[in-house]
User: What shape does this take?
Amino acid sequence: MHLPEILATTHHCINSPLCTTGQARGRAAEAVVVTLRQLDRRCGPLSDATTAQIKMLPLEQLEALADALLDFSGPADLAAWLAEHSG
Assistant: This one.
């Protein structure tokens, strides 16, 4: 997925009341892009459902996921992290 597609579908972070400035929206969008890119390399292609779930994470959780994924060995680690940190 390319940046314009990700930006168009990253409604939660970009349109959140917590992201009121252009700089904050840009930071949130970039966090999504970088995290999804890293996850694709570490875990392989993600399902649409998993991608959507990640896009809905608040910025703080995206940053935590970006740190945690460095220790992932595959998709099972991502699934476990999302189960523990989502909802």
